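Aim 2 progress update. The chain analyzed this quarter is reproduced below.
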Amino acid sequence: MTELYLDTFAITVRADPLLRLTGELHRTHQQRQVAHLVAARRGLPVDRIKVRQPLHNDLADAGDFLIVQQALAALGPPPERPQTLYLVRTGPLLDPMVAPLAATVHTLGWPGDEVGVSHLEEQGGTLVFDLLAWTIPEDAGATLIVVDDPAYVDEATERPAFAAVSLRLSRAGALRVVACGEGAPPGVHSHTFSGSGPCDAWLGLYSALTSGAIRRSESVLLHTAGRERQGWVLLEAARPERLHLNSVRI
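Predicted structure tokens:
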């Protein structure tokens, strides 16, 4: 794949997500109606679906773009040369009339293009690198945000991270993206981080990086095993000490 490196890595985590029972919503409430559709699609009783509530009096969170906004801001100022922003997010939103990517770009004044990627489900943090490998120009970088902050949750079987991972990708940097793929991951590596959601393995890697556990030349496998698919990304720690790290709690 085209040579890509990570030079900035940030995480944004919802500290205390408030989940509300669907039955507590008025029968005509839009979120209750969407919850019924979500339950029917998943073959679940609707009383198992809970709805994430936005932060009090926060219009950005009510529009479901606060976490995207914070994730992008966590990377610091945009690069001097405009680059494309990729937002990877799956699932219905709290407010279907709001476009989180457009709202974020408008609010923060992103100087480059933007691309929204949906329907990768739990493989949003792995298989998106297939797309990036052939869409990013050879002389450019990109900014990637992967979101796992669902509005509708089955607490009996789902353990979402309620988080976003944001990465600034360049042609030289601290961590090299070696390969990615679908299916069982290859080989044995210095470090392996796994999970069932699109951000889980990345959050594990972030913790290891902040503790200094990742050393030069070591290989790092990020593995996501969902209900139906597996995906992976293989990284090489080229100069991990040069990686810019940041974390935000909302």
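The chain has a mean pLDDT of 93. The helical segments are 30-42, 59-62, 66-73, 100-108, 128-135, 200-211. These observations will guide the mutagenesis experiments scheduled for the next reporting period.
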